[in-house]
Amino acid sequence: MSKFFILLCTLLLSHAFTYAQMRTLSGRVVDTYDRPVANASINIKGTTQGTVADASGKFTLQVTDTTVLLVSSSGYATQEITVGNQTNLSITLSETAAELQQVVMVGTRRVGRVKTETLAPVDVISVAAPAPTSRVDLTSILTYTAPSLNYNKQNGSDGADHVDLASLRGLGPDQTLVLINGKRRHQTSFVAVFGTRGRGNSGTDLNTIPIDAIDRVEILRDGASAQYGSDAIAGVINIILKNSVNKLTANVGVSAYDDPDFNPAFKDGLGHYIYSDKLDGKNLSAGVNYGLPLGKQGGFLNLSGDYLTSGKTFRQALDTVDPVHNKDGMFLNPYRRANGDGSLDMAGGAFNLEAPLNTAVRIYSFGTYNYRNSDAYAFTRNWSARPERFPTDAAGNLIEVPGIIFTAADGEQYFNPHIQTKIYDAAIAAGVRGTTSKGWNWDVSNNIGKNRFHFYGDKTFNASLGAGQTHFDDGGFSFLQNTANLNLSRELPGVAAGMNLAFGAEYRYERYTIFAGEPASYTNYNPDKATGAQGFPGYQPSDEVEATRNNVAGYVDVELDVTPKWVVSGAVRLENYSDFGFTDNYKFATRFKATPKLNLRGSFSTGFRAPSLQQINFSSTFTTVQGGTIAEVKIAPNYSSITKAAGIEDLREERSVNGSLGFAYNPIPGLSITLDGYWVRIKDRVVLSGQFDATDPNIDPALAAEMARLHVGLAQFFANAVNTTNKGIDLVADYTHRWSVSRLHLLFASNIQDMKIDEVNVPPKLSGSTSLQETFLSDRERAFILASAPKTKFAFNAEYGWKQWALGTRLSYFGKVEILGYGEDGLGINPQVPTDLDPNVHVPDAYDYGGKLVTDLYASFTYKHFTLHAGADNLFNIHPDLGVAPGAKGWAYNNEPAGPFDAVQMGGNGRRLFVRLALAF
């Protein structure tokens, strides 16, 4: 493969210095009021060449007489200009709806396709300036803007508390491909094994990319495996980094939750305040961005940095024990556990560089670095319920450890283990691109990224060791990905009404590693006591692995203007993986301009996702709470003897068929309406199985013996367990109007979706037992898959501006979600589960979370270089329902995090107040 790249690069570079007659063009970009449009993009149509206007709107560029320029900027209509013999240009951009005419880079390999004329739906979300919201991470910002992107903050869910994974169109987080500047982004080394969202998935952690480094985000809501490769079943998120120069932007903000309903100032049994005051989750964030010009031909070096520190939130569990603090028939118990978001300290930086070698060849590079230190609560340990989890003396008496073991007012002793993580994430890409004299655009690049996830246990014990050690190194994992690619494209104007031909090759190498913790984090020193550090037992030497694989891919992509009104495109991609072999994928898309204001579009494609190295090789022992009972769970790697004893087969790739049909309509200036329906059928989805119980008489004796040796009561596995069909509709309406000194922006985005489980792929070894069939993918696990997104979601944003002032609101509706409990509290029977199951099969309780409307309100004021934002997110302090099963009288501690709120909709922290100051020079 390396020889192939060297040969192609040599051939391309040998022709890169034969050019048409080039000359220097100067120009200035202004708006309709003759004000400079700083940072406007000036691109040469059909090529990758271009430049950016400076702070006064001026630019220079090497052109020929036949050069066609595409001039664009967020909030303005794109201009297309033929240079001719002009040497100086004055370009006026008209204001229009923000981003309606934005040139998009994702979903097409043709330069210059604007958003409303794409062959598939693309959301373009500007994040170049700090938004008037308390949400300062990319994942949550996109959740409240993009119609079918969803994310929920987890708590009480081990590693899921420390990394936020988003999903698109109700599918898994690892079924969406993430790009930066069009280059594949590496995934996190973390794989979710606990929590409501993304169970059994890995995915890309968007929050490792500094928000201040990002200009805009493009979200392609369409299957794109044939264009971009594995993971693009649901779509593609392309993050475009800033390239501005001579412009300094900075911001600093503070926020905190004000949730009086579920955050009272309780004291523990020793008289210490669990909460210092009614505000928690206090957040301080800051960011800065500055760009330097490089040379006189549009080169730049753009630098960014950000910092975030955030405190814990505390949302009390509910009980029927403490009648003193009664709220709506529920009882707040301050001694059960502290439940809520973990604390976080995070810092990161990014750079984006481009420099011309000459008029036709440019080098480029970009990179990011992120460090995260977080601390979250695990489940509470209670002495009377589980004494084997507490340190005792030789006589069996509890050893009191001040500051860790507390005594409640009723005399109960308890402690809350902490799970801490240190996460390192770094990536760098470098490449060379240019244009030959024959009109070929070429791009050679390499991109490498690594994510390292290290766990620690704090304020906890290995009860079998004693009380002497309260902090443990629990080990962790890392993931490295290196991608090299070559892309070529050429505009062929003489074919029909125009054609773009693109093809290329890619080589990708991946490495996944699990490293063990210190012996005290996982060893049992006393068979009468629980094994390992409480809260999160460390990874063991038997878990350690270093797994690698590579794949080689090639693609061809053709986009043809059959007529000026009708465009068709097709793509074919072939890939070969070293661990499971060959795959091929195809895509066809078309767009027809029915009228100058109406575009009809549709697509059909096949897709795939290779099972990740994380899913194939993950191995761990962790703690779960089921109906108040704490138990240890073993997740074994796919190739292990334990997995085979359970009857789980080798993992294979997921395969999909995608279809979409929709339109983009611009009925009046400033208004854009898009409506797109989609249908996605996926075969052999990789998910986590249910948890096999060591006491089930139907399990294989070899599996039961291994579970006994490991001191675990439950075992769980990754498997190609299920086939699903997902269908839905996305509607987006965007309107901007400006008059005199006033402006109005309205945005409505909605998603209606439904998922159906078509078939459960029960392995032959498990098909003879009803209980094992149910365990393989239990009703509870099926419910989590179906609850990957609300069935209905919409967002309505309205902002009115007058001179320097702006007032805005965001209304976000999250529809009904249904999940199932552990079924051990007798709080009600799920009416959707058949009652004629095997008597050994436990019927779980149903939890219905009704639809909720969240209201944000903000105001902004700009004075010269300063803008001040202030407001409240979730103004009316809305929470998800408490998840009470039918017939229940109170909270059951029977959900996934064993706290008051499952991570199903808008999160459980309530109202958040914020102030943010932004500067631009």
Automatic annotation (TrEMBL):
<feature type="domain" description="TonB-dependent receptor-like beta-barrel">
    <location>
        <begin position="369"/>
        <end position="875"/>
    </location>
</feature>
<dbReference type="Pfam" id="PF13715">
    <property type="entry name" value="CarbopepD_reg_2"/>
</dbReference>
<keyword id="KW-0813">Transport</keyword>
<dbReference type="InterPro" id="IPR000531">
    <property type="entry name" value="Beta-barrel_TonB"/>
</dbReference>
<dbReference type="GO" id="GO:0009279">
    <property type="term" value="C:cell outer membrane"/>
</dbReference>
<dbReference type="Pfam" id="PF00593">
    <property type="entry name" value="TonB_dep_Rec_b-barrel"/>
</dbReference>
<dbReference type="Pfam" id="PF07715">
    <property type="entry name" value="Plug"/>
</dbReference>
<dbReference type="InterPro" id="IPR012910">
    <property type="entry name" value="Plug_dom"/>
</dbReference>
<comment type="similarity">
    <text>Belongs to the TonB-dependent receptor family.</text>
</comment>
<keyword id="KW-0798">TonB box</keyword>
<dbReference type="InterPro" id="IPR036942">
    <property type="entry name" value="Beta-barrel_TonB_sf"/>
</dbReference>
<feature type="signal peptide">
    <location>
        <begin position="1"/>
        <end position="20"/>
    </location>
</feature>
<keyword id="KW-0472">Membrane</keyword>
<dbReference type="InterPro" id="IPR037066">
    <property type="entry name" value="Plug_dom_sf"/>
</dbReference>
<protein>
    <recommendedName>
        <fullName>TonB-dependent receptor</fullName>
    </recommendedName>
</protein>
<dbReference type="InterPro" id="IPR039426">
    <property type="entry name" value="TonB-dep_rcpt-like"/>
</dbReference>
<keyword id="KW-1134">Transmembrane beta strand</keyword>
<dbReference type="InterPro" id="IPR008969">
    <property type="entry name" value="CarboxyPept-like_regulatory"/>
</dbReference>
<keyword id="KW-0812">Transmembrane</keyword>
<keyword id="KW-0998">Cell outer membrane</keyword>
<keyword id="KW-0732">Signal</keyword>
<feature type="domain" description="TonB-dependent receptor plug">
    <location>
        <begin position="116"/>
        <end position="236"/>
    </location>
</feature>
